[in-house]
């Protein structure tokens, strides 16, 4: 039986957050270097970053009570025994 | 950084127009964004009806929240990238030249320049119901050499822009002729 702790998924999520930040900053950088920082682009950037912050907050809030040491079974040979 | 820095404005140059695509062309992306935002809510109700006790399991709940968070962040990123693609297609018309800057995806951008006095043909095209109702369309500009060709895509009042380009081109041609005769 193979098991992994739940916090592995949290690490993968944090890695994804880094990717998200890099791409979001590249997008914002494009706006600045092309002289397109207008009210419209500010509004859209504000909208996107506000939604992202709200998502982080709710994710954090929902996951506060989780026990990250819980083991998840990713492969159990008994599953195959039941087949045959 | 301002548009004048982007085109490296010359001292005698005056920016006449800074054109972008009509905002209506971004509406489909906006609609898609809201549809994608609603999908997880519908999936949640579907799963909750099929397996009412699933989200009471700690691990399933944690994984669902992480997956949902990744999904929503990806949508925001997609929306932002689409906006950049839309908003960073800029056409700058000065009294000397046209600078066409087109954003293609996140890591590709092309810039084309065309001298106004070289313009030989300007065509305004409005095709389709929405474009006709909301007065937007393409303006195609070509030179005598046929090597340089610029298209202003989905700009507001294409016919007025066409007339203005012809006027500016005419003025620039007179300016260059005077320069030669001096």
Observed structural traits:
heterodimer; A: 84 residues; mainly alpha; two-stranded antiparallel ribbon; 70% helix; B: 182 residues; alpha+beta; PH-domain like; 2 domains; 3-stranded antiparallel β-sheet; 5 helices; 26% strand; elongated
Tell me the fraction of residues in β-strands of chain B, as a range: 25-35%
What's the CATH architecture name of the largest domain in chain B?
Roll
According to CATH, the fold-level topology of the largest domain in chain B is PH-domain like
Lateral strand order in the biggest sheet of chain B:
1-2-3-4
Tell me the major beta sheet of chain A: 2 strands, antiparallel
- Average pLDDT reading of chain B: 90
Helix-strand makeup class of chain B: alpha+beta
Radius of gyration of chain B: 24 Å
List the strand order in the largest sheet of chain A: 1-2
Which two chains form the greatest contact, residue counts included?
A-B, 37 and 33 residues
Task: Output the number of helix runs of chain B.
Answer: 5
Number of helices of chain A: 3
Please state the overall shape of chain B, judged from the principal axes of the Cα atoms: elongated
Can you characterise this structure?
The complex is a heterodimer of chains A (84) and B (182). By secondary structure, chain A is mostly helical. In chain A, 70% of the residues lie in helices and 11% in strands. Chain A has helices spanning 7-33, 39-63, 77-83; strands at residues 2-5, 71-75. Chain B has 182 residues and is α+β, with helices and mostly antiparallel strands. Chain B has two domains: 10-21 and 90-181, Roll (PH-domain like); 28-85. Helix content of chain B is 48%, strand content 26%. Chain B has five helices and seven strands. Chain B has helices at 3-6, 27-50, 58-87, 129-133, 158-181; strands at residues 15-19, 90-94, 97-103, 109-115, 119-125, 136-143, 149-156. In chain B, strands 1-2-3-4 form a four-stranded antiparallel β-sheet. Chain B has a three-stranded antiparallel β-sheet with strand order 5-6-7. In chain B, strand 6 and strand 7 form a beta hairpin. In chain B, helix 2 runs antiparallel to helix 3. The longest helix of chain B has 30 residues, at 58-87. The chains are: A mainly alpha (84), B alpha+beta (182). At the A-B interface, helix 1 and helix 2 of A face helix 1 and helix 3 of B.
